[in-house]
Amino acid sequence: MNRFYIKTAARGTSEQLANIDGLLQFATKDLNTVYLGLKLIDELKGIAFKTNSLIDEIIAIETHSKLISFFKICILDITVVYKNALSSTHLWEEMHCLRQGYLLIYEAVKTYGSHSRYIKELAFRTSDSAVKMFDEMSAQLRKFKKDYDYEGTISQIRNSTVAHIEKDPLHFFKSLGKFDRDKAFKSIEDFVSILRNLLLLSDYIYANGIREIIAKYSRSFQPNEYLTQIDELLKDIEYMNNEDYYIFLPN
Q: Beta partners for 90?
């Protein structure tokens, strides 16, 4: 790392950046679907309290959809970080983006850890397929944390080059000198794959929960327009899960 922090060229190719632009458009549409779902669930919750017939089920779906929202925001944020890092022509710009990537990974894994037991319980209540998806995703996350030293390197980069810099600036510069940018790029690519699998599981649980509510309590939804909105929401979720956009080309 020279004192001017200058690079000769961006890492990303025009094809890579175009693909990521496509991913951003798709992921934004996906997030909009979640937002509309949250609004619909909020309306249904009002009906639930009036009819006193499906309160627990609606609240459970609402809680799960809030988690889905967080992780879909994460995948959008880390995609933007990745795109900006690939297109950067200034070394400091690239390192800034990658440090932000580590911060996002750190916070996402930490948040998942605080809710993993709840997600596991939902998977077991949903189906054997959901349990298998949960186990595979959990194994993938354990491998990621080991391969990229989540408790060590990622945590240390987050603590010393993103937060608390004022406590020891010399340590900040020493940490930057040891920063493995190639490994950081690869960690972001691999983490997107984990987020993708987590979202596939979450959407599967979400859709099954909504179908269960429809099957048991369809007469509680009045007027019938809510059933139409729910059906459209389920179609959007199914479409998102049939499209495999959450894959980055190797850099």
A: 6
Q: Look up residue 43 and give its two tokens.
A: 């309306």
What's the CA gap between 143 and 188, in Å, rounded?
Answer: 14
Lowest mean pLDDT among 66-75, 172-181, 212-221: 212-221
Q: Which DSSP letter does residue 224 get?
A: T
Closest CA to 203 of 139, 144, 133, 124: 133
Instruction: Give the H/E segment covering residue 210.
Output: helix 181-217
Q: Residue 36 and residue 161: Cα distance in Å, rounded?
A: 37
Residue with token string 């327009």: 225
DSSP three-state, residue 128: helix
CB atoms within 10 A of CB 215: 8
Treating both helix axes as pointing N-terminal to C-terminal, what angle do 181-217 and 225-242 enclose, rounded to 10 degrees? 150
Does 101 or 16 have the greater pLDDT score? 101
Residue 45, judged by CB atoms within 10 A of its CB (0-12, 13-18, 19+), counts as middle
Would you call 35 helix, strand, or coil by DSSP? helix
Query: How many CB atoms are closer than 10 A to CB 124?
Result: 12
**At residue 198, what is the residue type?**
L
pLDDT tens per residue, range 70-102: 999 999 999 999 999 999 988 888 989 999 999
- For 166, phi then psi, to 5°, come to -65, -20
Residues 98 and 85: beta-carbon distance below 8 Å: yes
Structure tokens at 69: 């929202």
Residue 194 has pLDDT above 70, yes or no: yes
How far is 184 from 172, CA to CA, in rounded Å?
17
CB 78 within 8 A of CB 104: yes
